[in-house]
């Protein structure tokens, strides 16, 4: 029996991982396989979803999570050979990926027969200004969507959702727009009835790839000073598109903190205990090409390391 695919797209920091987290946590007995395509050398997203840094991780509710290493079609083929086979496959794209290219790959006749693309979900940060849709990549992510989920409404002002819906309508896309409070979405919207036939899609002409972003990874074998880190992020923030990481602080030894920066906002949440043999601080920074050098980043971040 074919295994339907849900493709989750959206710009950097839109809230895609939160949505996938909720899907896995509330699978309602479905066997869901999640493929995470993180942008960067340190796969923080997989850790947030499954509590592991690589490989295939079995979750208590029968779901699994794996990181996308290499070819997407090869990864799909590996999942389809598992026993038992998943009932649904969720693919979380990189925030800088053009989903039209992924849709084009999934239209391969062999894949379409075995793992048909059922739904494309675009997650959009409602707290960002509607002018964000002036960006060509974000418009591409929006135009292939069947459903647009407005995230982070709790961080936005009262009229933000209305403004973003109006901006989406102005793009003349046929997608259904729904609110995704705390990343929650009705499963009936995302997972189809078993008797639905796959539908071929036309993603449009292939466009030349545009390298816009680069990843700078930073690690430390020593814990960080939280006040110094806050100063460093404040200094780097105007040039960052996204940042995320795990680190231990001198103020709370023996516990990792989960760090997220997106849309000009930084958040911290408690994580698990540090893993032996792994750097005590691991942070990925994503920026437009050329706006932040590795030398400057290392200098700024080195000042965050706690004194012996």
Q: Total number of β-strand segments?
A: 13
Describe the strand arrangement of the main beta sheet, using strand numbers: 3-4-2-5-1-6-7-8
The number of distinct structural domains comes to 2
Distance between the termini: 59 Å
What does it look like?
With 308 residues, the chain is α/β, with parallel strands linked by helices. The chain has 2 domains: 5-190, P-loop containing nucleotide triphosphate hydrolases (Rossmann fold), CATH 3.40.50; 213-302, 2-Layer Sandwich (Hypothetical Protein Yjia, Chain: A,domain 2), CATH 3.30.1220.10. The chain has helices spanning 16-25, 44-50, 72-80, 99-106, 109-114, 136-143, 160-170, 187-190, 226-236, 294-302; strands at 5-9, 32-36, 56-58, 64-67, 88-92, 117-125, 147-151, 176-179, 213-220, 242-248, 256-262, 265-270, 281-288. The strands form 2 sheets. Strands 3-4-2-5-1-6-7-8 form an 8-stranded mixed sheet, sandwiched between helices. Strands 9-13-10-11-12 form a 5-stranded antiparallel sheet, with helices on one face. The radius of gyration is 20 Å and the shape is globular.
Question: Which descriptors would you attach to this protein?
Answer:
308 residues; eight-stranded mixed β-sheet; alpha/beta; five-stranded antiparallel β-sheet; 13 strands; 2 domains; Rossmann fold; globular
């Amino acid at each position: 029996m074919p295994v339907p695919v849900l493709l989750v797209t959206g710009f950097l920091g839109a809230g895609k991982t939160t949505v996938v987290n909720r899907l896995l946590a509330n699978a309602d007995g479905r066997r869901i396989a999640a493929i995470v395509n993180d942008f960067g050398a340190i796969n923080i997203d997989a850790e947030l979803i499954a509590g592991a840094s690589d490989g295939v991780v079995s979750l208590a509710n029968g779901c699994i999570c794996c990181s996308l290493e290499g070819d997407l079609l090869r990864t799909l083929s590996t999942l389809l050979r598992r026993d038992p086979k998943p009932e649904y496959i969720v693919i979380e794209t990189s925030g800088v990926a053009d989903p039209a290219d992924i849709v084009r790959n999934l239209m391969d006749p062999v894949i379409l027969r075995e793992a048909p693309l059922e739904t494309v979900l675009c997650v959009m940060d409602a707290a960002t200004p509607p002018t964000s849709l002036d960006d060509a990549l974000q418009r591409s992510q929006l135009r292939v969507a069947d459903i647009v989920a407005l995230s982070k409404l709790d961080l936005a002002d009262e009229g933000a959702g209305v403004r973003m819906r109006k901006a989406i309508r102005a793009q003349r896309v046929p997608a259904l727009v729904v609110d995704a409070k705390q990343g929650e979405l009705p499963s009936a919207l995302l997972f189809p009835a078993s008797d639905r036939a796959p539908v071929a899609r036309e993603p449009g002409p292939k466009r030349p790839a545009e390298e816009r972003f680069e990843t700078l990874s930073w690690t430390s074998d020593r814990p960080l000073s939280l006040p110094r880190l806050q100063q460093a992020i404040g200094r780097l923030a105007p040039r960052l598109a996204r940042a995320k990481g795990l680190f231990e602080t001198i103020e709370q030894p023996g516990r990792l903190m989960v760090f997220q920066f997106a849309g000009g906002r930084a958040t911290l949440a408690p994580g698990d205990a540090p893993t032996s043999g792994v750097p005590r601080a691991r942070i990925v920074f994503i920026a437009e090409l050329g706006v932040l050098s590795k030398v400057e980043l290392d200098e700024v971040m080195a000042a965050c390391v706690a004194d012996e």
